[in-house]
Design goal:
- This protein is mainly β.
- Helix content is 6%, strand content 30%.
- It contains one helix and six strands, in the order E-H-E-E-E-E-E.
- The strands form two sheets. A four-stranded mixed β-sheet has the order 2-3-1-4, with no helix packed on it. Strands 5-6 form a two-stranded antiparallel sheet.
- A hairpin with a 2-residue loop joins strand 2 and strand 3.
- It is globular.
Length: 87
Amino acid sequence: MSTVIHFECRNTSHLASRSRGGVGGIVMHHGTFGYCDGSASEGDHRWIPTGGVFLEQLIRQDAEDQGGDAGFVPHTIENGGPQHLAR
């Protein structure tokens, strides 16, 4: 079973760095798990709630997914996880 993440870091400088691919980046935040996908990011996070999604749904697959909050719509696990709107 995968780890459920309740907060995702959307700090634009963290998103500009390469994806850590799920290796590290999980932290405790408000008693639940948060995840920052930026490989060189250990502080100054900007957390947004995910509604509870699987870690694998937050790992960026390519450079197009990097950026700010534009196009990001979090959904709970029951509704299929976070989705990125077409740009």
